[in-house]
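Sequence in, structure out. First:
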Amino acid sequence: MSPAGLLVFLINRSAWEDALTGGDGELEAGGEQSPEAGPHPFPLALNRLETAVLDACAGADEWPAQVAAAIYAGVDFAIENPAAAGELTMEAAARAGDISQYERVIGRLAGFIRVNAPIESRLPVSTDEAVVAGIVGLVGDHVRAGRVKRLSQLRPELVLLALLPYLGFEDAQSWANRMPQSRKR
């Protein structure tokens, strides 16, 4: 599917409203925020992350390149916006008393992988979500521990992790190493 197809997928009215409002039509503030979280309520943080990911995918033609670009964009988002990234973690959802926030993050990001995944090797939905949850957890741990600058070093490994179930080790490793040097920090 083209980047335009991804955009159509994301703009699906019910999915978009669900992500921004929690399904009740009322814009969520993301619960109580810690002072260091800043003005990054959950729906705004999710919207900003998805925009960064979509923009990155627009420049890639092949599915593995789109996944790699999305991961690099997501990690760059966390590096540049650690407070906003922190709003998308399990811990933030727990503080807000709404674990469904975290489930929406995982489901929406898993959708990016699933939408163009090779049909012949597509894994069950729970596996896509488990891979994404692992990636989000690693990024969230680095944000929480104040190791945001180290995230750039993890990007190739996160690409490998995301592509491995679909492509096998050799092809996934190849794609993980293909990102242009200008994208590597």
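Second:
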Amino acid sequence: MTDPIAWIREQLDEDERKAREATPGPWRWTDPGLKKTKLALVGDRDSTVLLAASADAFPAAGDAAHIANWDPSRALAEVESTRRLLDMYESIAAKKAENSARYARLMAVPELDQEAITAAATHGWELTGRLQGLEFAVQVRALPYAGRPGFPEQWRP
């Protein structure tokens, strides 16, 4: 099985690639003031994303608002926030592994240092709690990708 965190990062890379290939945002709807074009979706510096020539080509109001809201700027912000969450998760997982190794070394010493063992155990419990909370957040954040091939089955709701 693929590493779930690596899989999510692949999905984010794909989302970022698509957003960067699109017209930069923010996107907004406007009347371009042209004779044959009644509505235009424009991006950064008024670059054209979409033109609608007749009323039946216009998106419904809710669709129009949704399209403009989910522009590439928004997609890139979503990608970045999820990457930060994954980085935090991996950082805490590494710290927990280091602490577990330290605890094992302490337990292997014939003359036990009870104070150090207690400190390592307490720190391990704290890291475990943080890691569990972050893992839950990562799983919830991954749900929009549930329809894609490779989605971690153990994370399905």
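Remark: The chain has four helices and three strands.
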